[in-house]
Design goal:
Blueprint: E1 10-15, E2 20-23, E3 26-28, H1 35-46, E4 50-55, E5 67-71, H2 75-85, E6 91-94, E7 101-103, E8 122-124, H3 128-134, E9 141-148, H4 152-162, E10 167-172, E11 184-185, E12 187-191, E13 194-197, E14 201-202, H5 203-219
Parallel strand pairs: 1-4, 1-6, 4-5, 6-9, 9-10
Antiparallel strand pairs: 2-3, 7-8, 10-12, 11-14, 12-13
Helix pairs in contact: 1-5
Bound molecules: cytidine-5'-triphosphate (CTP).
Length: 220
């Protein structure tokens, strides 16, 4: 058994992008690969947790037998899946890059090329972390992610408060080797009264750092 055990704990994790359909052949998405979320799922499971992974479209496969994956495509589907699982969860980790907006109505048939301009009306998606933050139960510990390009710490702290998170993992796109499409990441973990900065390292090692700090806060 590893030193920091999550045996008996259930972790609910969102990972990957969401795809919001425009028509049957097109969608709005983003560059998230899901690597950070899947690395966290493996790490939690290796430390004894039972992991419920709600994953948007990725090329990844969960390996550990203690990980149960629910595959979803859109933010609405991700939210519905998370609502089914949240009451049984001790630790919530929002690692998904949820699309902030979706087309107001997906066209039933392929949109054919016509004029020089095409306008697609978008409406806001549900903010899954914020919605769950509002109904967080005593004893539930929640962790979010923030990917920022400017005013990084201030923006991340605002998200921590707005979404009622206990911890937020900040990725700065200004750090070389961090963020989308890299196997490495450089993070800073912000809490209400603490800031912990880490070096650039492999996402699997970053997952271990995140999990160690969560363990300290949940068990310490
Ligand atoms: N998040 C979520 N549902 C959304 C948007 C974000 O659950 N619809 C979660 C992400 O998984 C992440 C955190 O909220 O843990 C912050 O995501 P981010 O996209 O950085 O924040 P936003 O609130 O969307 O702010 P903005 O895009 O304006 O920076």
């Amino acid at each position: 058994m590893t030193e920091r055990s999550f045996k008996g704990k259930t972790v609910l994790l969102t990972a990957g992008p969401t795809h919001e359909p425009i028509d049957p052949v097109r969608f709005i998405g983003n560059h998230s690969t899901g690597k950070m979320g899947y690395a966290l799922a493996e790490c939690f499971a290796a430390h004894g947790a039972s992991v419920q992974l709600v994953s948007g479209p990725t090329n990844l496969q969960a390996q550990h037998p203690n990980i149960t994956v629910t595959h979803v495509t859109t933010a609405d589907e991700m939210y519905a899946a998370v609502l089914e699982l949240v009451d049984a969860a001790d630790i919530l980790v929002f690692a998904a890059a949820v699309a902030d907006y979706k087309p107001k109505a997906a066209a039933a048939r392929k949109i054919k090329k016509s004029g020089n301009e095409l306008t697609i009306e978008l409406v806001k998606n549900v903010d899954i972390a914020a919605a769950l933050g509002q109904r967080k139960k005593a004893g539930q510990f929640s962790v979010g992610f923030a990917l920022e390009t400017h005013d990084e710490s201030a923006n991340a702290l605002e998200k921590l408060q707005k979404k009622n998170l206990d911890m937020i993992v900040l990725n700065s796109l200004n750090d070389p080797g961090a963020g989308f499409r890299h196997d490495t990441n450089k993070i800073t973990i912000l809490e209400q009264h603490a800031t912990t900065a880490f070096d650039l390292k492999k996402k699997t090692a970053v997952a271990q750092d995140i999990i160690n700090l969560i363990w300290d806060r949940v068990h310490g």
